[in-house]
Design goal:
single chain; 105 residues; alpha+beta; five-stranded antiparallel sheet; 2 helices; 5 strands; globular
Amino acid sequence: MNDLPNDIAHVLDALLSEDHPLRAQLPYLRIESGCTCGCTAYFTGPDTVTGAEIVAEATIGCDGEVLLFAEGGRLSWLEVCSWTDPKLTLSDAARHLLQEPGAPD
């Protein structure tokens, strides 16, 4: 998957099944911006997202969830929502979805 960071590429790969219609966009995605804590990646820029809807989601054990949003048929952002402290990051989500050691329970 293009030049996306590994954690984001792994999360997107886990969230979008092989036959998901939005998966065709993955080779072309670029990150416009993100949160400094590592919980969000914007593909279209945070100030351009207005009517996005959740197109894929997964829980991260009992600690939170990861949500993928699209607007107008285009992937717009990826976000981790934490339900506990410490706050989860996209790297935590990737480890959990890949079932790697050290992943949140």
